[in-house]
Amino acid sequence: MKITDARVVVSSPGRNYVTLVVETEDGVTGIGDATLNGRELAVASYLRDHVCPLLVGRDARRIEDTWQYLYKGAYWRRGPVTMTAIAAVDVALWDIKGKAAGMPLYQLLGGASREGVLVYGHASGTSLDGLSEDFQRHLDLGYRAIRVQAAVPGLEKTYGIAPADGRVYEPASGNRPQEDTWDTPAYLDFAPAMIAHVREQFGYGVHLLHDVHHRLTPIEAGRLGAALEPYRLFWMEDPTPAEDQSAFRILRQHTTTPVAVGEVFNSIWDCQQLITERLIDYVRASVSHTGGITHLRRVFSLAELYGVRSGSHGAGDLSPVAMAAALHLDLAIPNFGIQEHMGHTGPYAEVFRTSYSFSDGYMHPGDAPGLGVEFDEEAAARHPYEPRYLPVNRRLDGTVHDW
Ligand code: CS2
Ligand code: MG
């Protein structure tokens, strides 16, 4: 089954998505998500200029061989751009394999290990009352797990919190990133009060999650984790900058609040120590940024040996193709934990027709062959790329800070 064409489509139906389309000689087409938020064009070029020409003529059925060829063959390994490009090829080939077999992808991955995939939604507020309203809205939609974030009093803008209640947070379009402000002491005072507020109002019958966005030092994170213990979080996400794996030893010595990390990971080497030393509880890597199904499955298999579960990244800047791929993997692996479901906004459904579903807090990828997502290239052409950047975070004195 020879590949006859591989092309990259950059579109912005609500926000920027990079989609790889792979065609084969017998008419089966596969798609993969190659979106890297704020660096979309770098991955598009990596694919267009260096990968697509290598794909034409290859056998689409040889997924593992193609993965190794692109990873080892380039000499320059890992990194978000490379691994996102490889991921898009990998997912497109899995899509083709599923369609050729007439089976949904999860069947090829060993079949369903559960009836549905527990997902968490995002509640946010510009105030505690605003957060409560958004939390109630998520409960009414059926979510059983909800991430809670609220604006820290005194800080004008913080990434991860919608600018107005009832909206989602998205970076504004433009050629330069917005600049946010940050103050760790104010946040550390506020965060436990925010979580306490939600527990007092809504009780303990729903899972609570919270994203720290890499903004703390290990000892600060230890203090926060300890303060949050009475509220039984499902997890505290990205407490410290993720690349410093041994820092998590300090955090672990100070709290039993479960820890999740991984949305910036792009290979198994980013979490090898975190997993084998049992320094985290959930790996949040995504299919799109971590080398596709082939590589992320390997990460989750390593994690399984050490009692670490999955918690894949599922933000709105990963396209519906990535969401579908994640759901197939989530349904099949033994050590699934939870899946993020931020959802998509804007006219994305004109471009991506999905077959996944949500009901009672659980999602299912559907039973269409392959990924179950149809990509409409003509519709994509109506929504051209718009430059849009993630914000930069500065402390009150102007120092650039992690976020
Ligand atoms: C967030 C994301 O979903 C999350 O947990 O941290 O909004 C993340 O910042 C973006 O996906 C980055 O592109
Ligand atoms: Mg996050």
Automatic annotation (TrEMBL):
One GO MF term on file is:
magnesium ion binding
Q: Which domain of life is it from?
A: Bacteria
Residue ranges occupied by any Mandelate racemase/muconate lactonizing enzyme C-terminal domain in the UniProt entry: 128-258
Give the protein name, as stated in the record: Mandelate racemase/muconate lactonizing protein
What Pfam families does this protein's entry cite? MR_MLE_C, MR_MLE_N
* InterPro entries linked: D-mannonate_dehydratase-like, DgoD-like, Enolase-like_C_sf, Enolase-like_N, Enolase_C-like, Mandel_Rmase/mucon_lact_enz_CS, Mandelate_racemase_C, Mandelate_racemase_N_dom
Originating species: Nocardiopsis dassonvillei (strain ATCC 23218 / DSM 43111 / CIP 107115 / JCM 7437 / KCTC 9190 / NBRC 14626 / NCTC 10488 / NRRL B-5397 / IMRU 509)
Q: Which GO terms describe its biological process?
A: amino acid catabolic process; carbohydrate catabolic process
Give the taxonomic lineage as stored in the record: Bacteria, Bacillati, Actinomycetota, Actinomycetes, Streptosporangiales
